[in-house]
Structures are given as C-alpha cells and as structure tokens.
Write a structure and sequence with these properties.
Length: about 150
C-alpha cells in the first residue's frame, strides 16, 4: 500500500515538473518572437574567479524570465585568464559578445544604448540584480531602513 502511494506521488510530481518546464519553454518562445532581450554589459579586469559565476547567474535569470540573454563582456587589460574563460563559454553556446577595451563613454550613455552595466572593477559597488527583487517589493529596504 505504501509503495503504491509513493509511486502515485512520484508520477504526480514528475507531471507537475513537466508542466512547468513546458510552460517556461512556451514563454521563452514567445519572448524570442517578440524580440525582447535582456542585455547586460559586464566590465571585467582580472576577474577569472567570478566571471563564470556572473554569466551563469545571468543565464539562469534569463531562463526563469523566459527572455533571451545577450551579454557583452568588456575586458580592461586583464593579466589573467578572464577572457579565456569567457571565450570558452561563448564557444559552448552562451550568447556572449567580447570586447578587449572599455570605451570612454559615460555609464549613462552606455546603459541607454546597450543594456544594464555591471562593472566588476568597482569594489563596494551595490549591483541591483533583477533576479533578487520580487515585483512589488522595495528591494533590500525595510520599514526601519536598509538591512
């Protein structure tokens, strides 16, 4: 009796998971057809230890929202293997564009024209990740101030 209940629960759980995967797939197909992209500019300098994590986190966010992702990685004269990691990820199928020099445009001009800027060179920069904010929330603020 218990074994049959476990099988029923397993089949039900797999059906629920399949419905969710198909729903996400349909949302991403509709987003590709509508032409809406999530675009990021990732500015790096000697960030080989974290660049893959950032790109994978952005890819996961794009998967959850059902929108295609485009990331432009701009390197500011790295002396490590940051661009090697990025080029391997680009060859493996990630939607990445690479540039070896950072343009002299202001951040406001770049963000208006191309996407959201994540500058890893600035220490202490608070990056507002869209995946960490729920619609209708106030971000990391509470009634009593910042957390």
């Amino acid at each position: 009796m218990v074994a049959q209940l476990i099988w029923i629960a397993a089949v039900y759980s797999s059906a629920v998971a399949l419905v969710h995967v198909l729903h996400i797939r349909e949302k991403s197909r509709q987003a590709r057809e509508s032409g809406k992209w999530i675009q990021y500019i990732l500015i790096t300098r000697n960030h080989e230890s974290v660049v893959e994590w950032y790109i994978r986190a952005l890819t996961f966010h794009a998967f959850l929202t059902g929108k295609p992702l485009r990331v432009l990685v701009m390197d500011d004269n790295s002396s490590d293997t940051t661009m090697g990691i990025v080029s391997r990820m680009a060859r493996s199928g990630c939607s990445l564009d690479m540039a070896t020099a950072v343009p002299a445009l202001g951040q406001e001009e770049m963000s208006k024209s191309q996407g959201i800027i994540l500058d890893l060179r600035l220490s202490g920069q608070t990056v507002r990740w869209p995946m960490m904010q729920v619609d209708g929330s106030r971000g990391s603020k509470s009634k009593h101030g910042d957390i």
